[in-house]
Structure formats: structure tokens, C-alpha cells
Amino acid sequence: xxxxxxxxxxxxxxxxxxxxxxxxxxxxxxxxxxxxxxxxxxxxxxxxxxxxxxxxxxxxxxxxxxxxxxxxxxxxxxxxxxxxxxxxxxxxxxxxxxxxxxxxxxxxxxxxxxxxxxxxxxxxxxxxxxxxxxxxxxxxxxxxxxxxxxxxxxxxxxxxxxxxxxxxxxxxxxxxxxxxxxxxxxxxxxxxxxxxxx
Length: 198
Fold this sequence. Notes:
Number of helices: 9
Shape: globular
């Protein structure tokens, strides 16, 4: 009965790790290009940014919709995983919430045009939206709860409401370069803060 040598297992594991790293590089490059050029950006621009040939992208993502969905999920996961890290490392829960909201706004800007890219697959879009809510609402809730507990913000704001409000403020960013939603998002966050006693 043949057995796999330890060195063979190590090589396979290393190959898998390389493939995963290459995929992450492609997704990061695609996300960056989507922010500046939208989801209809030329594949060659993504390949150039990632430092790979176009064939490599098509090998990982046979269609543009596959790439867009993968970037979307990757960005959701990155945003979700950042919440607990920010909470552990930031000076305060409110500072962590502000940093996380910055990431969330970046994500929202990245995803503009997703619906158009997936217009032929409404069930796929619905599944992505459910994934978005399942992953991000609990993270936002954790950050809000920590800030309430630290007496930095007033209680009563629901994570879904806050995320929806931020999302609404981000609408139109891709069609009007003069509009930057971050200033209004900052005003929204300031409105959550407890008044400081003078």
C-alpha cells in the first residue's frame, strides 16, 4: 500500500499555501482596481496590479461575475475579521468603532456596481446579501455594545440601522467624484457619542 512521504505532504501543503496566497493577491488587486475603476474595470488592469498574466486570473475566476463575487466575499470576511482585532488594539471601543466604520465605507465603495455585474443571477445576489448581514451585523453590534459599556456612546442604536444609514450615505459616491460620504458618516458617528460634561 503506497504511502505519502512527509516531504511529499510538505510540498503539497506549501503548494496549497502558495495557491491561497496567489488568490488573496488577486482579490486584493481586484478590490483596489474596483475602487478606482468600478467592477467593469479591464481584467488586464487587475492582472497588471497583481503582477500576473490574465490567464492566471481566468484560471482562478472563469467569469467576471466569479471574480466580483469572490472580491465581495473576501472584503466581507476582511471587514468581519477586523472588528475583534480593532477592539483589542484600539485606544477605546469608540476608536475601534470609528476605524471599523472606515473599513466598512471602503467596502461599500468597492461593492458599487455589484448588482449590475450579477444582474443575471438574482439568487446569487440574495445569497451574497445574506452572507454580508450574517458576517457583519454581529461585528458591528459587538463594537456598539463595547462603546455603550465604556459609556462612550448612547445606548439604543442597532447595528443593522447604523450599517444601513452608512450605506445610504455612501450611495452616489461612484457617480459624483465631488461627493465624499466620509464627512457625513463622521457626523453620524458624532451623533452617537454621549455629550461630554463641561
